[in-house]
Amino acid sequence: VKSSIGLIGLAVMGQNLALNIARKGYKVSVFNRTAQKTEEFVKNRVKGEEIEPHYDIKDFVESLERPRKIILMVKAGKPVDDTISQLLPYLEPGDLIIDGGNSHYLDTERRFKDLTEKGFLFLGMGVSGGEYGALHGPSLMPGGSKKAYSLVEDILLKIAAKTEDGPCCTYVGERSAGHFVKMVHNGIEYAIMQSIAEIYHIMRDVLDLPTDEMSDIFKEWNSGELNSFLVEITYKILKRKDEETGKPMVDVILDRAEQKGTGKWTSQAALDLGIPTPSINLAVVERIISHFKEERTKLSKLYNKRRSALQKSEEFLKDLKDSLFFAMFMAFSQGMWLISEASKEFSYNVDLFEVLRIWKGGCIIRAKLIDTLRRYISDENAHLLESEEVISLLKERIGSLKNVLKVSIENEIPVPVLSSAYNYFMSLTEERLPANLIQAQRDFFGAHTFERVDKEGVFHINWEEGEIG
Ligand code: NDP
């Protein structure tokens, strides 16, 4: 019997996804560049599931039902192109390749065009949820063509995470839409992670709280409006002790954050499209700064920080909680606005309401807040700042955020993402920004011209003329 689907790339994600698909009743053929990994996978993890290992790419392709459907879960970048090139000689027009890795959307754009011209079908599919999600139900963000999607829709809907609003999978949009949306998902993830980290920093270095107590606080927050996967894992992380030293695990982990690029790509795309995503940008920058551990250690000794312990109070904990809510909201606001703009610019035809729906389960940024966002999202209100309920949610919390920023500044704690959420909101809600002065400066040194508030047209003056003194 031929397999319903094939999967290439048996690292963490591929293994779990293959098992998930097989457990939903589909026969899966698998292949990995390094044969040993395939052998180990079959020996250690396959327990009665219909998973057929292959050690030759041609045999692998021939084991599949037609039209063939092949999911790639290989390292993003060149490995995807290499794998596609290896497959092509054995495929027939109408066969479907699905790239489930974190590919850059411009690579997906190129591959989509190339494969479509050759008569093949292609989906660029964002997969979120890590290894647990891949096995038990990820959030799936496939983009490409509707025709390609319809070939695998039944399988994808079955393996995706489920919520009361349906499976966390939908046809996201044209061509590279799926990978664009996944990229922004990761950008939002960066901003929320950094916001939580800044709150933790204040708890640790201003409130002087023991980690167990911080864990209890995050746990309590997670039972309310902040309920989310990232807050949940934070309270679990803070509870964990190092077996060797007995210390809290977080205290033995080096403060140098790594990244694989999806946050940076989000910022780059946002800058190119002219959409403000300061929380995402600064979350990326802060990971970069964290890398300079030696410099930071040296400089910290030259600039002794002023830090006075603040007594924990119910009021201040509420301020922290409301600030995190505010920052989380702004991360989504910026991300959704970016997706909306990309959808227009690249003719993706993305349904923002559906994107939020498939982020409700399975993925890393799943959060209770998404239900609120879904009530108000639209192409006209993609940044979500316009509805009555949102206005009052934000107004109620702005005092708390100001207080948290004040305490951070007084104690010389860096809070780039919390403050960027504040500044993003304050800039967007300011009728008259000081950009008039910038226009004057540009005109002064570069004759770049300016518009006037009192009449139509484009103006330039000779700024040195008539100078006083
Ligand atoms: P990796 O990104 O570590 O990729 C390893 C896999 O890629 C192996 O199967 C490896 O084969 C294969 N590979 C590497 N180079 C080549 C090549 N030149 N030709 C053919 N195959 C190659 O694995 P992950 O499981 O972590 O991730 C897979 C994809 O899913 C990535 O794009 C990742 O960004 C994305 N992703 C990962 C998540 C995670 O939590 N890890 C979450 C969501 C998405 P070999 O065994 O022969 O080396």
UniProtKB/TrEMBL annotation:
Active site: K182, E189
Molecular function GO terms recorded: NADP binding; phosphogluconate dehydrogenase (decarboxylating) activity
Family matches, as InterPro entries: 6-PGluconate_DH-like_C_sf (IPR008927), 6PGD_dom2 (IPR013328), 6PGDH_C (IPR006114), 6PGDH_Gnd/GntZ (IPR006113), 6PGDH_NADP-bd (IPR006115), 6PGdom_BS (IPR006184), NAD(P)-bd_dom_sf (IPR036291), Pgluconate_DH (IPR006183)
Protein's organism: Thermotoga neapolitana (strain ATCC 49049 / DSM 4359 / NBRC 107923 / NS-E)
Protein family: Belongs to the 6-phosphogluconate dehydrogenase family.
KW Ubl conjugation (keyword) present: no
PANTHER family, A to Z: 6-PHOSPHOGLUCONATE DEHYDROGENASE
The 6-phosphogluconate dehydrogenase C-terminal domain, residue ranges: 178-464
EC numbers on record: 1.1.1.44
Keyword terms of this UniProt record: Gluconate utilization, NADP, Oxidoreductase, Pentose shunt
Reaction(s) catalysed (UniProt annotation): 6-phospho-D-gluconate + NADP(+) = D-ribulose 5-phosphate + CO2 + NADPH
Quaternary structure and partners: Homodimer.
UniProt keyword Iron present: no
Protein name per UniProt: 6-phosphogluconate dehydrogenase, decarboxylating
Biological processes per GO annotation: D-gluconate metabolic process; pentose-phosphate shunt
Involved pathway(s): Carbohydrate degradation; pentose phosphate pathway; D-ribulose 5-phosphate from D-glucose 6-phosphate (oxidative stage): step 3/3
Chain's role: Catalyzes the oxidative decarboxylation of 6-phosphogluconate to ribulose 5-phosphate and CO(2), with concomitant reduction of NADP to NADPH.
